[in-house]
């Protein structure tokens, strides 16, 4: 009787184990947001997950499959090896055009541009749902909500912050600023920070306009360290370089990076 009950317990619980859907034979992720979701759902060790991008914040201790160069840098032979697989990738016209030639690959484009973290998480969950079984996707969203609440508490300086796409080297500033996208859009809309005046998600900044803004503004160079998992905050007066794994990944990646940033500011 005890053995029977134990077997029943195992059977019931196994039904709630997070896994890929039975019809999914193999999976590749070139989307940072998808890879982070797989990480949180403890699917990195799943045998169906065969490859992820080398730019994603996952070490070779966490994942034993293939680390791919990602995006348009994939060779024809590599793309052919995805045959029969589900492939997740971040929004890209070039990659969509390339993948459209391979009819036996189930390509899922993850569109999260101009979305704030929770919007991105909701859209991602909807796209992942058909390919997963027994996974608590609501938990991913609730976890993100808690992190956003934590971030709100630690942002004390309601100053101007300019988040540049890339590392600041000497006097040279990267060409692009993130303004109305992802975590920066959320912080701006929540009135936690002020930033460059533009309605564009990303903008090529004007030296004249930048210099007209308050002199005590923070200029932040953001670098995603990817699979090296490097975390570093370098400060020199109002110029700061933030290096963090997943710092440019919409949703959880950007939120974790900003928690790290403002905690160390």
Please summarize what this structure is.
It is built from nine helices and 13 strands. It is α/β, with parallel strands linked by helices.
Helix-strand pattern = HEEHEEHEHEHEHEEHEHEEEH
Helix content: 25-40%
Largest sheet: 6 strands, mixed
**Measured distance between first and last alpha carbons:** 60 Å
Strand order of the largest sheet: 10-9-8-11-13-12
Gyration radius, to the nearest Å? 21 Å
Binned strand content: 15-25%
Number of helices: 9
Using DSSP, what is the number of strands? 13
Average pLDDT across residues?
91
Estimated structural class: alpha/beta
Q: Provide the low-confidence segments as ranges.
A: 1-15
- Envelope shape: globular
Question: Could you characterize the architecture of this molecule?
Answer:
The chain has a 6-stranded mixed β-sheet. The chain contains 9 helices and 13 strands. It has helices at 2-14, 32-40, 76-80, 93-99, 117-128, 137-154, 182-189, 207-212, 252-264; strands at residues 19-20, 27-30, 49-53, 66-68, 86-90, 106-110, 132-133, 161-165, 176-178, 202-204, 218-224, 232-236, 239-244. Helix 5 (117-128) packs antiparallel against helix 6 and helix 6 (137-154) runs parallel beside helix 9 (252-264). It has 265 residues and is of the alpha/beta class. Mean pLDDT is 91; it is low at 1-15.
């Amino acid at each position: 009787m005890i053995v029977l009950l134990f077997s029943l317990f195992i059977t019931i619980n196994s039904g709630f184990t997070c896994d890929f859907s039975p019809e999914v034979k193999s999976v590749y992720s070139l989307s940072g947001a998808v890879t982070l979701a797989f990480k949180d759902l403890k699917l990195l060790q799943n045998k169906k997950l065969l490859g992820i991008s080398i730019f994603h914040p996952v070490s070779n201790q966490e994942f034993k499959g293939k680390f791919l160069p990602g995006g348009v840098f994939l060779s024809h032979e590599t793309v052919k090896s995805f045959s029969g697989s589900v492939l997740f990738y971040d929004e890209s016209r070039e990659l969509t055009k390339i993948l459209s030639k391979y009819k036996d690959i189930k390509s899922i484009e993850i569109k999260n541009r101009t979305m704030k973290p929770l919007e991105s998480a909701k859209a991602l969950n909807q796209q992942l749902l058909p390919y997963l079984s027994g996974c608590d996707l609501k938990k991913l969203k609730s976890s993100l909500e808690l992190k956003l609440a934590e971030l709100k508490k630690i942002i004390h300086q309601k100053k101007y912050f300019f988040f540049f796409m890339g590392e600041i080297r000497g006097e040279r500033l990267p060409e692009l600023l993130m303004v109305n996208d992802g975590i920066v859009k959320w912080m701006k809309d929540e009135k936690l920070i002020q930033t460059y005046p533009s309605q564009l998600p990303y903008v090529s900044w004007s030296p004249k306009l930048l210099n007209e803004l308050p002199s005590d503004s923070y200029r932040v160079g953001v670098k995603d360290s990817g699979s090296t998992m490097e975390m570093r905050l370098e400060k020199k007066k109002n110029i700061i370089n933030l290096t963090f794994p997943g710092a440019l990944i919409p949703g959880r990646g950007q939120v974790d990076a900003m928690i790290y940033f403002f905690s160390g500011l």
